[in-house]
Input
Amino acid sequence: MSVEAREARQPWILLSPALTAVALLLFVPLLFIVVYSFWLRTATGADEVGFFLDNWQEALTDAFYRDILLNTLKIAAITTLVCALMGYPAAYFIARSKGNKAILLLLLMLPFWISYIIRTMSWINILGVSGALNTALLSVGVIDEPIQMLYNETTVILGLVHFLLPFMVLNVFVSLDGIDTNLEDAANSLGATRWQAFTNVTLPLSLPGLAAGGLLCFVLGAGTYITPLVLGGPTDAMFANLVFEAIITQLNWPLGSALSLMLLVVLGALVLIYNRYLGMAQLMKGLG
Amino acid sequence: MGWNLVRIWTILVYTFMFLPVAVVVLLSFNASQFGSFPMTGLSFRWFVELAQNEAILRAFRTSIVLGLLTAAISTTLGVLASLALVRYRVPGSNVISTLLIAPILVPEVVLAVALLLFLNFLQINKSFTLLLLGHVIFTLPFVILVVQARLVSIKRDVEEAAMSLGASPRQTFFQITLPLMLPAVLAGALFAFTISFDDITGTLFWKPGGVETVPTQIFAMLRNSISPEINALGTVMIIMTVGLPLLGLAIARQVAKKSGT
Output
């Protein structure tokens, strides 16, 4: 073999293990559940191979699934909005602060290293019947007996915001950090107030970061089932909970496949729209 | 004035992020019997109970073995792929990059379902193997992103110098490239280990009955009520996933200082 041919083959040899893994452990399984979603779980518990539309009909027409899907998207949207409102000023502060930028950034990274389940359950210590807030209110005398503040939609959103806020702050920070501060100074010297300089120059330039953070918050938020299980009540199931129910509890795998694919299509569409207009590069900046 | 508002807002945001976690750590030292407020004193009793709880120790062993194997496999795959993407001009490298990070673009629940059902079809039932394969595919994109970002900064000149001085490609790789890459490799491995150690979304789908990792063990314990043992377990986990990397970072800095680079 010529030297050039060997040189050309080398990257493919290096890439093949990872590409094989992704193909066999992600893409083929995804295609498999597309096929599986047309099979039928029979009363005996065995799957009937074939082309049945029953699962799709149930998933797409049953109002139960539709309502929970809409509610899931609503929860994800509120979560994303709250993350943006809370996260943007913080990211701005980190990007423009002089002295303690490094320590603020390190602190911002820490939540990524703290287990999701710990961060989620930590709210029980705060809001639970014998949690910090109830104890404080009782001792001050505002209330006579503990209030149940947990296990509702608000606490689910609270838990999600707590989980996803660092993604938002980080993405906005990355984009703000890349903006030349001279631009703001130039706007100021041309007579803009600080606020005008911010709304007309900095804010528009940082929108890609805000969009990247927003996409991550929305997609990760809409795909969760742990937070509603830990911080939600019995009626606060999100769409991923239905998938978990179908697959793990009811063992109806064909229906579970159809529900998973529904979630994938809805959230995948968002990722594609994002990719179409903003590209993946911005997202990778925040992740890498 | 406006700046001060932003400062106060930022302090509030950081408080929001860390206060609940700080309360977990605080309560894990609570002497009171119920593990809640008011605190009656400081004690290590919950850590002692933790160390005697067979189920929790088993979960720890499972998580550590799983995390180490995941890190080993996923770092190997990730480093090779990153080398190809950074070092060679690969046709369609943009598409390849997107394919390789696809596992984190797909919602984890969907990835979990697809993998479980497909491998079950191939007669690989819920098992440690399934758990390991799941963790590998889920951590691989993170390793590739981290390693790629660091690899870009390594100059090819040093390698070319070694080759021009007569080193074989193999010698160059093991004596020049690999040592230079080591921080990137370690960062990737640490990342993979931490993600695997923390994962619960996929793990609940893949784990066989009776096998628990630390997060699923915590999740199972939450079903009853929040016991002080959970807070102690949380504290241990925080120390493992935050304390150890920070310590590693500090040591790496110290070593770098001594070697003068």
Observations:
- The first helix of chain A runs from residue 3 to 36.
- The mean pLDDT of chain A is 91.
